[in-house]
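Before going further, it is useful to explain how the protein records used in this thesis are read. An example of such a record is reproduced below.

***
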Amino acid sequence: MNMQEWLKNLRKNKRTIPILSFPAIQLLNCSLTDFLNNSSLQAKGMQLVVERCQTGVGIGMMDLSIEAECFGADIKFDGIDIPTVCGALIKEDATLVEVPPIQKRAKIYIDGIKQARKLMPDIPILAGMIGPFSLAGRLLDVSEAMILCYDDPDLVHEVLSKATEFLIQYGKELKQSGANGIILAEPLAGILSPMLVHEFSSEYVQKIVKELQTDDFIIIYHNCGNNVLKMVDAILSTGCSAYHFGNAIHMKEMLEKMPKDKIVMGNIDPVGILKDGSIDMIEKETNQLLKQCEEYDNFILSSGCDIPYTSSWENLDCFIKTGNKYYEK
């Protein structure tokens, strides 16, 4: 499947494409624990979302703990909230840390993509994967990583090199499993200063793009940080095929800065609007965003980030229906 052609067709035939995976739990009537640990449920969940929302593309889970788990990081999971990384795995000498094999839940997610490909042979499937600086932050501790960029940049670069090597390996396996691309989530880079983001994030994303991206496999860059308006040049230097931004920024301001030949996606608040908002609020905010951005034919309506699994399907149906109705006009 030529994914560059798919992006061109998406520009002509717009549809609402949220980052929507975990709410499939409700459609499957299963627990979060079962969903995270069962590749068949993940694949079926992707299929049910595509059928219900008519997105035309399967979206894999955006779970930003699985890559750190492969390195051996402690994961907190209580069966209620999405898994998170606890504490720092690397505290001083990163040279002692080896690049791990693909293991643990990562293998389940790969198999989920493989099974989804069998269920949906004719549409694109996009897997989720963390970005290099965001992974390094989980291995070093998020707050500590920000300080170390100044105090011990060599340590950060050592961790980034190993994180990037692992992510390239993981991306290749996702590609072999049947994925047509990756949504690369690099949110932690969004709180770096513009001076640091190129050195500690974009240069490493470039390496991933160079190794993985082809006409039939695209990288969609996601960053929901509040500094992204100040780092457009560094973000574009990654060479990704498309870009997805969160609700911390004004989308029209971002579109003004982005090249017209790049698809830009976002950015309805997944929590304050899609999860906790009323139907009237969702319709109002969605129509308002589309009206603000309608002069930009490279804009595609999406959620600002991954949508919480507890979000009501009444709200999600309203969001997708409202967006697609606007596009039909």
Summary: The chain has a mean pLDDT of 95. The CA atoms of residues 19 and 306 lie 5 Å apart.
